Structures are given as C-alpha cells and as structure tokens.
Amino acid sequence: MLTIFGRKKLTSEQAAQIFSHHVVDVAEAGFPEVAGFINDSPEFISNPNIQPDDYGKFLMVVIAGNFSYLPQHFTEGQDKEIIEACKTYLAGVFDMTPNVFSETIKEYKDCMARANFPSKNVVSAMSKGVFLKYNLTNFQEEYFREMKTPNPIFLKNFGDVMKNFLMDWTAFNEKYKVVGHQG
After folding, report:
1. pLDDT for position 1
2. Is the pTM of this model over 0.70?
3. Per the structure, how many domains does the chain have?
C-alpha cells in the first residue's frame, strides 16, 4: 500500500533523529546479550567479564559502523547531510559538542578501518572494533594473544551477532523518502 500512496517525506534532520533513536535504543537494549556472548565465548581462556551496563564503547562502534554503512543506501549528498545531522543530534544526546562527537566517531572509524584493512566489510570492522575497544586480546589463548589478533572463530561468530546492529536502510527507504534538510 505504501507504493500506491507514496513514501512519507522526511528531512535529513528527521531521518537523523529516527536513526539516532533507533541505534541508541537497539545498542542499549542488546548489549547485555552481547556482553553475555563475549563472556561465554569458548575462544577466550579467561572470562573478559564485560559488564551488561558497559555499553558506551559498543554504542560508539555501532554508530561508527552505521555511518560507514549509510552511504550504500543514499546519494552522496544525502548521506553526508544525514550523517552531519546525526552528529549534531547525537552530540546533544551525549552532552558533547558536535566537534568533540565528530572527533570521537572519527577515532572509532579509523581504529576499525585499520584493524579491518584491507577488507571494507562493515560487520567485520564493527566486530574488530568491539574486540579492540574492550581489550579482548589478553583473554585469548597464547597463540592469538602474542599475534595481537582476534581468534577468527570468535570473529566469525561475533559477526553474526554484530550484523543485528546495522540499521535496515532498505526497509527505511521503502517507507520514507529523504528530501533534504529543513529550509
């Protein structure tokens, strides 16, 4: 029926607010299970003891990953408008200035890109980002600990978890049409 009546038009700011609320809610609600998955992973020889309420770094990884994923679903101008609107909106949510929030997200994106090079797979980058930000290297068996690399079995299994934290922009675009910023 949506195609008969058309999609609801949104500004970039409105799209940013929908995304921002969604990503914060999903990351906050889902992190206790993520922490449990990490703590119970047999690939670790000792329990990382990630606390269910310690989701700040996870949320930043999820936001950074989604910012990397978003351009696949919008034109070049639209993606930049939406991301900038998200940064402005989320900076307020986190009680940061937009510049500080942008720098924080840039640091996370850079860390994830370096860890994931040469792959461009966003889910893999997010998995490695969580691995690094929660310092999980020291909880692995000696071989992977000395190589300072995540156990590939953990990464594969964790990727199956992390893909649930990417925004479904295809479904979003079926329901909404982003028409640009507010004039």
Report:
1. 38
2. yes
3. 1
